[in-house]
Amino acid sequence: MRAVVFDAHGGPEVLRLAEMPDPEPGPGEAVVRVGACGVNWLDVILRRGETPGKPALPHIPGSEVAGEVVALGAGVSGVQVGDRVAVAPYLFCGTCEYCLRGQESLCLRGDILGLMSQGGYAEYVRVPARSVVPLPSNLSFEDGAALGLSALTAYHMLITRARLSPGETVLVLAAGSGVGSAAIQIARLAGARVIATAGSPEKLARARELGAEAVIDHRQQDIAQEVRRLTGKRGVDVVFEHVGQATWDQSVAALARGGRLVTCGSLTGPDGRVNIWTLFAKELSLIGSYGGSRGELRTVLELASRGALRPVIHAVHPLEEAAAAHRTVEAREQFGKLVLRP
């Protein structure tokens, strides 16, 4: 099969199109013909060698897969050859204490598709059969690939972890990202007011189109000061944080009394300070969020199927243009998702 691989860590130029062996399903596994695969920041830092774990090389990245089941291993039930599916990217063992509680992304033996395992920048990918979920018939493979990690992450952050309620106000950072563009929509579906940040007038306009009531240009304006102005000095109930060190101080400062900061990433660095007095005196909550479950992915896909959640796709590239897609993501030039199509 054709696949995009890297043999060494480095810039986008290390990505190359190669012929790799077709995957064969083992017991409990499925092989999916990849219809589309999303490009994520995880793919970028994996290629750079910045993830805590390093996969064996050559490696095929890609965590966000939608496609068609073409082969099944022994002992698989509930899935058939020919099924259109999306792959839940947070792989789990199914037997540890966290899996048994339904917290699949906290699995003691967990992985992310394309992190240590071979991923979806390919014509075919082998996955645990329990990790596939049906792709609604009115969603394209590109739609499924644009939702499978980013929208799942946003849903888990806002609904499961932050427990967003109707009438609350949410600050969504980096609205032009895949996760940010999904978060605006999910927050609005929950009945919240959204303030969004982005770094250009074009992205700010797109954020408004998705449902942001107010916007902040993070290149020109102080985020915390603008939040205070927009909320009558009150602050926001929830900050949707995934940028990291560069915005951490302002994110905490933007919180109202009793506010919650929920974070899934540290794009600009892992270090963030908190004034302990402020933390307890304002009764703030700092919440980590990691991935999401199969059930949450089914919910996200159902919302998209009903037209309540729109996949935001910046561009679709063939496999051989994977390096160009990575350059776009690293330059933060996109609004929404980059998708590869074999």
From TrEMBL:
Pfam families linked to this entry: ADH_N (PF08240), ADH_zinc_N (PF00107)
Keywords, in A-Z order: NADP
SUPFAM superfamilies (alphabetical): GroES-like (SSF50129), NAD(P)-binding Rossmann-fold domains (SSF51735)
Gene3D superfamilies: Medium-chain alcohol dehydrogenases, catalytic domain (3.90.180.10)
InterPro entries: ADH-like_C, ADH-like_N, ER, GroES-like_sf, NAD(P)-bd_dom_sf, Zinc-ADH_QOR/CCCR
GO molecular function: oxidoreductase activity
Transmembrane segments: none
Residue ranges occupied by any Enoyl reductase (ER) domain in the UniProt entry: 10-340
Protein name: Alcohol dehydrogenase
